[in-house]
Please model this.
Amino acid sequence: MPDIRADGLAFQYPDQPPLFEDLTFRIGHGTTALTGPSGSGKSTLLGILAGWLRPSHGDVSNLPSRTQWVLQSPIGSPRRSALSHVELPLLAAGALLQDASAEAYDILARVGLDAVAERPLRHLSGGEAQRLMLARAMAAKPELMLVDEPTASLDATSAATVIEVIHALADIGMPIVIATHDLHLADACRSRIEVRR
Model:
């Protein structure tokens, strides 16, 4: 897939000052940190990359059709196991249960959750739940993954574990864009886009 390109990107809500102007960047495979102060438009830019919002000015090209958005707060079924959360997108894509289970377990191992594969979501720690959301998004095999503030609600130890996982995903065969205030997380990414008013 060719790099995602943005040229002269700007966004402005009606009767409001621009959130950002004249953003030009390229996003390739691996991890890209999206940084900037609160209110600078990071989530809005994620929405543009997801195809949910149109920029006020400028162009974005080569946006993929299959995008997964990992929200800041993990969302799932509290009683379902970690494994079943990752199996679901594989089953929805037509995989047989045995094949989906094997692939889901491999994905959980990649994010360090194989030991808690049978544990229900409600019994996972905050860091484990956030890594599960990354694993579930990976199982959907998107062409672009958008991750919104994955360490914002975590303690330092859990945040460090999530950062290690994201760092390990740098070689994955798709772009991963991560909106964050966490400088340690930003430093673990391959590239960075800074959004300022």
